[in-house]
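Subject: Protein record for review, amino acid sequence with backbone structure tokens
Why sent: The fold of this protein is of interest and is recorded here as tokens.
Enclosed: The protein record, placed directly beneath this head.
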Amino acid sequence: MEHVIALDVGGTGMKAALVGADGTLLHRDRRATARGPKAAVAGILDFAADLRAHGAEHLGEPASAAGLAVPGIVDETRGVAVYSANLGWRDLPLRALLAQRLGGIPVALGHDVRTGGLAEGRIGAGRGADRFLFVPLGTGIAGAIGIDGRVEAGAHGFAGEIGHIVVRPGGVPCPCGQRGCLERYASAAAVGDAWAAACGNPDADAAHCAGAVESGDVRARKVWQEAVDALADGLVTALTLLDPRTLIIGGGLAQAGETLFTPLREAVRRRVTFQKLPSLVPAALGDTAGCLGAGLLARNLLTAAPSADSSTAPSADSSPYPSEVTT
């Protein structure tokens, strides 16, 4: 049975699937992401090799292509994982390494949020929308700009970094070097930190805050509203620039459902003037979006014209870990 490997790598865990030609998930698996760049890369390659072996044994043939989604800065054209603060790598030729490990099959490398956005746009909450913006609210905040069935990477691979729109000038310092970035106020991590400080419980997180909001806790409502207001400020800036037809909100914070979406829709509505309000909807694919998107990237390789460098492996004497990789 013809199929592809889909692999979504996160800072703490990896999600994978073997996906059939019709999009059917034929096999799914998860593993922890190893700590340290060399261990993380070895774990990715081993996982992919095991998936290939599973396909050969149980589906009658090995995978025809593979798609890999990773966090950080990604040069999708060259197949290079440029930088990841959480995983510790720099300028890693990950596409070539994976192609080499998988016997030279075509491999696509994508940015995790853009890859998730591709899946939401094609088969999820943005299906049928010619222009959409996908914004997952997790440890940080990023975005995927969908245009006519594809996701825009930008001239340098940085498109969609909505989390670093400054919404509170002079505010909380951000690791990016600015102050007052959106993700310092409206990410799940930021809400969790703010609620932990407000309630005095260092173990409290965003889900606890949402529960307290639903039970009527005044302190929780204040924390929540401040996050919603910051998020609305960032989203209105984005929709002013991009004019999306559909605005898709995902990630951990979106699991609060209407506790988030009802005040967020109202906050966005209050802020628009001449802009057209997009449909503001929850993501449909949950934490499977990145994996499903990786499968779509792999399928694209089989339907597009062959690329000379889509499966180029490094030479035998080249190091798979460039000197810039930090440990």
Observations:
- The longest strand covers residues 13-20.
- The longest helix spans residues 218-242.
- Confidence is low (pLDDT under 50) at residues 307-327.
- The CA atoms of residues 96 and 314 lie 6 Å apart.
